[in-house]
Queue: 4 jobs
Job 1
Amino acid sequence: MRPSQMPKMMLSFHAGWDELIRIHPSVSRMFALVVLPFSLLPPAMIYYAGGNYGDIFSPGVSAAQWHIAAGIFFLAELLTVPAMAWIMHLACRANDVPAGYHECYTLAAIAPIPMWISSLVLFVPNLLVCIAVGALGLLASLAITYRGMYALFRMHEDLRAMQMATVVTGAGLLAWLVLMQIVLMH
């Protein structure tokens, strides 16, 4: 899977997904090549933006507090990916979808990539622009979750895949809000 395939993966049940299924990367490989590098983006951007113009986002918070928040955010992200894989695995079991933890982890590692990339907008010191781009990243992640559930879990019903993606994305949104709260509280 190449990063250039991400837009296609949001719109197709096969483009990019078939290759990912064929490659069948291990959990450790997904962690090392996807989760770790991409999850470094938001904390780095929080560190940068908080240290340079953090008052735009949260007045009165010192640069040192932003830097601590960036570190906490990074650790929380690393914990969120396996937690989301576990939630997906539970959703699969509850819906009699024969998907193992490996497939769930693969999707949990890929789905947040648009949100991780959207953190680059923090180079722009404008709260509304950051919110808009973050919302687009969230929508793109939802699309990847839906298409990925259908493709990776070998589902044959669009409605069932959409229902499961909605539940999982709801849990992911809750996790994302908790992560945002962690940043804003420090």
Job 2
Amino acid sequence: MADFCENCVLCQKILSRELESHPRKIADLEVSTAILSSNQICRGYCELIYNRGHVTELFRLSTEERRLFCEDLNRLAEAIYDRLHPHKLNYELLGNSVPHLHWHLIPRYLDDNLDPHWPIWDKKYKPVKITEEAAAEIIRKIKEKL
């Protein structure tokens, strides 16, 4: 297991157990925590946060940890796809703003009215907030498959 970083916002959320009680937490998986994003610009947009320490690059994980992290990603992606029926799933592993391993899983729909060639965090897009009831319903659907 890697060390945690005192300057990393995700490490601090893990250490403070904030992720454990996060209101939009979907599940703890093998080596990560799945959260429904506060920005629901695409219904079912989730984040998958590596929770075993501070790691900034996928290649820095051991082969086994990388396999487990990718399996967690696959499980969450399949659950989103199966329960929410997007046209396509986008996977982003950037870390430019928050340099801690975490995936963005972005379901894309034919009617989402977003440019298919630009990421959803492009400046021209405004974040979409949904009610807690709507969030709970999406979380319930995804958890049913997990």
Job 3
Amino acid sequence: MRYWSNPPHEAVEDTRSSLEKLKSPDLNLYFVFDHEGTVIGLGGIHTGTEIGFILHPDHWGLGFAGEAISAVIDHVWATTDLPQITADADPRNLRSVGLLTRLGFRVTGFARDTFCVGGEWSDSVYFALPRPGAS
């Protein structure tokens, strides 16, 4: 949760409430990732064109995030007319930055002190992935 935009929830009910909000018809491009019947993460388009994702640390480095986000991207291109998908990551989050880069996202900018979570400021690196075939 170090690189997430809010601190860890203090109670299960807080997490449940957040997940309920993700079921909104307005967020029909957000998905729960499961493996063998266990929820291991979630991700999708959460605001405008911005993609986000989180994966439980027990599943890091196993290819699950790449597989899941690739499927989300394919779904976005197949079901929307979005011209691009964007992302915002803490540049210290090397795994997320690496995943976005491997998926074809390109850096479009940087900003300092964009989030303050738990008293710690973080910077942002911004990415964009244009729709295939778009100029």
Job 4
Amino acid sequence: MMEVVNIVVGSLFMQETRQFILEILRQKSQATVDEIVTELKTRRGSVITAVTVRHHLGELLREELISLSNLRHRNSPGRPQQVYVLTEAAKDYFPNNYQPLVNHILNQLSNTVPLSQVNVLLDGVATCMAADAGIPDLPLLERLNCVVNYLNDHGYNAHWEKAEDGYFLYTANCPYHKAAEENLMLCDMDMKLVAALLGVVPRLKTRISNGDPACSYFIPEQEIVHG
């Protein structure tokens, strides 16, 4: 039992240390191993070695949360030091206020702008997102793969399956589920986005906002137009 406890505590300790390293890099913009060691000693109130820090940095590099910037020469004799910086992916590890902000913006739009104009605005957002995806005119099966890749890159946890008389596209995660719970307009926007990405208007079968395990979109075989 104690061995299990030690493993769990050790794992939490490692995660906390890596979170501290990410916070240090966010505050300092960039840092060397020596600078990180100094900051960690202050934050944790205990000694940590450069070897241990390099191990954590190696894991963060592997997870693509940090990257190497350049070499910094020491003021004293010795080899130049590597400088570490955060990647864009690391930003997701810090608290943000996106969901409440989206809720407030949509609520204000609903209260001050006619619903038809709000729908036009969200249709435009979906069109812009689909254009940014840059999916070429391909036969549907190839296009489906491109659409799934795009959706997964944006947090939708998507996949497609062959059905007897067509295809199903599933998205098991809603990247803005908290906002969608209060504003079904976002669900409608997602429908427009999926249609624009596919180049075909699918039939919406299930919705996460309705309590279903995934949003599912059915594309009938007869509506498929090959590129």
